[in-house]
């Protein structure tokens, strides 16, 4: 199939947004399809907090995602793998991260579960659906291929030297089942001029002056939808946004919308989000589920409150813009007549990030030190330059991360709920029979997305693929939840491990957690204690021992050990 996504160096539009409208004007109703299987659109946000959407309690305006939630299902107990690349590998393959080869990051630690690239002993959803007759496209952040560092990494990150490969090309999306790809291979980007930008398998060397990644990715997704809708075959589209991952980069008009919103401070915003959650009965009859704030500092005594309020305003602007762009994809589905028979899934790769990226070293790994023109990028360690523009590199930090993950404790890379529990929305008018706007407490995990896609597409999962022995997928289909609101059978235990952060959740909602620097398991009853405030390990030591043994068995089976 010919790839028709534009080659950016060869075009000179005023803005990339205009091109989608010119090339892919509304095509009207799609042709009647002989293949009645549903289209599937999987939308992944990056570092989105649990309460960052309006339909989960936020003050940020997210009308398009709220509309999907109000006409579909919101899940309250849906889990990820705690960090970007492990989650993405697990999501795409239906395997636990270590089975998928990325137990930690995208560097090879020479242990079976830590190879730094997505295994070829698993298959991707795209590979399976493509084999089954689906059109397959991906837009956005890949981050599941080993990303080697070079001696001139600093210059490479700043677009001052060029290499043809950002990772081995056999691990690019177009060689893992996606017929079309426009996005980045690395994880972190400058939103106004991304490093590792690729069209198909070709590096994109330049972008228009007023490029913004969130808009560009959505425009590409719209172009795919318009083209795929003309074909009789169903399609699978993986739209993997970078937002709202740091650096805090947003359009000035989007920031202006929120510039005064966060001057009320951490406590006020967190309490307001909690109040909205209670009013919408997000956790049913539970009333007291707001964990204590993790910091003792007072907003009124914060000498950096202006900078901190601005940082959160930029974060909100990034979420707001992502929602706007999702709205364009939904409009394309509506205009092409595809929305009724399209399963749309939205989630985040992990909880909000507590990182202070302004304290990192510029020019290392995936963090640029300069812009393309040689102008230094400011890492405002002293908080003396406001975040938002291209020449800054900053993040919201732990105090705001604790707010956007309301009502939970902790954040990205932890196995407490703030790190591993994600907003999850399912919208499929033709199949979801539950009352619109239903809030569902069924336990789910990213490994279930492969199983669900196989179930609704009738695709066959192989024992051998491309001469590689394939590991059986781990997940369970969510189709019964869409049809009846309940899992067809009690959910199985789900397990977590990332840099020695460990957890297991059993089928009745009991959870054990062991932080990396601890040797003691904590025990929580998520049915009564949604935010892990009351450790019951001393009260029920036998339960802890039993659950620990099951966790250790999982570690052996799923390649968590040997550790690096």
SSE layout:
Layout: H1 16-23, E1 39-45, H2 63-70, E2 73-79, H3 84-93, H4 125-131, E3 135-141, H5 153-157, E4 180-184, E5 197-199, E6 202-203, H6 213-228, E7 235-240, H7 252-256, H8 266-279, H9 305-335, E8 342-348, H10 397-404, H11 417-420, E9 421-427, E10 438-445, H12 447-457, E11 464-465, E12 468-469, H13 479-484, E13 494-498, E14 501-505, E15 510-514, E16 522-525, H14 541-557
Helix pairs in contact: 1-6, 3-12, 6-9, 8-10
Provide a concise account of the structure shown.
This protein has 564 residues and is an alpha/beta fold. The chain has helices at 16-23, 63-70, 84-93, 125-131, 153-157, 213-228, 252-256, 266-279, 305-335, 397-404, 417-420, 447-457, 479-484, 541-557, and strands spanning 39-45, 73-79, 135-141, 180-184, 197-199, 202-203, 235-240, 342-348, 421-427, 438-445, 464-465, 468-469, 494-498, 501-505, 510-514, 522-525. A 10-stranded mixed β-sheet has the order 6-5-4-3-7-1-8-9-2-10, with helices on both faces. Strands 13-14-15-16 form a 4-stranded antiparallel β-sheet, covered by helices on one side. Strands 11-12 form a two-stranded antiparallel sheet.
């Amino acid at each position: 199939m010919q790839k028709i996504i534009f080659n950016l160096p060869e075009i000179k539009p005023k803005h990339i947004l205009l091109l989608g409208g010119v090339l892919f004007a509304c095509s009207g109703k799609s042709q009647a399809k002989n293949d009645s299987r549903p289209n599937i659109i999987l939308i992944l946000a990056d570092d989105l907090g649990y309460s960052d959407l309006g339909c989960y309690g936020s003050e940020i305006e997210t009308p398009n995602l709220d509309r999907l939630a109000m006409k579909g299902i919101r899940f309250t107990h849906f889990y990820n793998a705690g960090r970007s690349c492990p989650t993405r590998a697990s999501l795409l393959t239906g395997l636990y991260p270590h089975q998928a080869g990325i137990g930690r990051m995208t560097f090879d630690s020479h242990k079976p579960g830590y190879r730094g690239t997505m295994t070829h002993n698993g298959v991707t959803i795209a590979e399976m659906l493509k084999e089954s007759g689906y059109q397959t496209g991906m837009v956005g952040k890949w981050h599941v291929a080993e990303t080697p560092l070079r001696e001139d990494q600093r210059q490479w990150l700043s677009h001052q030297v060029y290499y043809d490969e950002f990772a081995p090309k056999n691990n690019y999306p177009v060689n893992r089942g996606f017929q079309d790809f426009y996005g980045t291979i690395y994880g972190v980007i400058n939103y106004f001029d991304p490093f590792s930008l690729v069209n198909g398998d070709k590096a994109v060397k330049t972008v228009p002056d007023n490029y913004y990644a969130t808009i560009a990715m959505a425009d590409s997704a719209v172009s795919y939808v318009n083209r795929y809708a003309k074909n009789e075959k169903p399609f699978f589209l993986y739209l993997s946004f970078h937002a709202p991952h740091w650096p805090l980069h947003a359009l000035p008009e989007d920031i202006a919308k929120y510039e005064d919103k966060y001057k009320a401070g951490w406590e006020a915003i967190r309490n307001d989000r909690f109040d909205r959650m209670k009013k919408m009965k997000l956790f049913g009859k539970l009333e007291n589920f707001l964990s204590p704030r993790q910091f003792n500092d007072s907003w009124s005594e914060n000498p950096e409150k202006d900078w901190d309020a601005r940082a959160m305003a930029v974060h909100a602007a990034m979420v707001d813009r992502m929602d706007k762009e999702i709205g364009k994809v939904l409009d394309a589905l509506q205009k092409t007549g595809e929305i009724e028979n399209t399963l749309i899934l939205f989630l985040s790769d992990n909880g909000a990030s507590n990182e202070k990226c302004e304290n990192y070293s510029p020019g290392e790994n995936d963090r640029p030190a300069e812009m393309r023109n040689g102008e230094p990028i400011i890492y405002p360690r002293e908080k003396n330059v406001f975040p938002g523009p291209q020449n800054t590199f900053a993040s919201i930090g732990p105090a705001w991360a604790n707010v956007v993950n309301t009502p939970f404790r902790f954040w990205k890379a932890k196995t407490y709920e703030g790190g591993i529990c994600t907003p999850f929305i399912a919208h499929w008018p033709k199949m979801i029979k539950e009352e619109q706007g239903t809030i569902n407490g069924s336990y789910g995990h990213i490994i279930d997305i492969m199983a669900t896609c196989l179930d609704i597409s009738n695709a066959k999962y192989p024992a051998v693929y491309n001469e590689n022995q394939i590991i059986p997928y781990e997940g369970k289909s969510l189709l019964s939840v869409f049809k009846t609101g309940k899992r067809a059978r009690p959910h199985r235990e789900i397990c977590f491990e990332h840099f020695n952060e460990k957890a297991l959740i059993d089928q009745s909602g009991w959870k054990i957690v062991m932080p990396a620097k601890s040797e003691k398991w904590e025990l929580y009853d998520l049915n009564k204690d949604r935010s892990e405030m009351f450790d019951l390990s001393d009260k029920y030591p036998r339960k802890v021992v039993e659950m620990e043994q099951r966790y250790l068995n999982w570690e052996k089976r799923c390649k968590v050990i040997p550790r690096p």
